[in-house]
Amino acid sequence: MSAHAGSPEPTVRVNVNVEIAAAALQTVVQNAKQIVGRDARGRYRVDTADMVATLITRFLAERDFTAYAADVDNYPRGEEL
Fold this sequence. Notes:
By secondary structure, the protein is mostly helical. 44% of the residues lie in helices and 5% in strands. The two termini are 28 Å apart.
C-alpha cells in the first residue's frame, strides 16, 4: 500500500482493464511525447501505459472515487454485468 500524493488515505495498486475513447489515448500519446521529447537517437522513451495509469489515478482521487464507490446506485446490474 502507498499514499497517493494529496490523499491522506493509503492506496493500493490494482491492475484492471478500462475502456477509454481512442481519441483520449491518442491525446495521451501525443502529450507524453511532447513532455519527454526525443532522446539522442530521435526516439521517444515514455511508457504511455504508465502515463494513462497516472492520469486515471489522479482523476479518481480528484473526483472522489471513494464516495462514488460507496453509493450502491453506481454499481452495474443485470445486463451491464
